Amino acid sequence: MKHMKRVQRLSQPKIVTQSSKQEWNSVTSRKTKKRTSPPTVSKRVMELALPKNLTTLNDFSKDVRDPFKVRPSALKAICSLRTKLLARPKYVENSFGEPRNNVTP
Fold it and tell me: Per DSSP, what are the bridge partners of residue 43?
């Protein structure tokens, strides 16, 4: 029963409030004086990589290493990019029509 409760709590989106930010700041300021705000990830990256039910940065950092947590749409985009890059010609012809192998596209 305890386990079920925990799962339920995790699936609900957490709201990052001012107090939680201050809490984070106080924790980090003990370790390093430089950082004053929690690390941020751009919204687009979050949208691509996060499954729908995870909304906070903490959840993001926990699950970012699990490849199955990436949304299929993001995976599709990554794969299409990869195939485009692999489909590039390996060599470029010089002015005499001969292939130059050492040219990077």
Answer: none
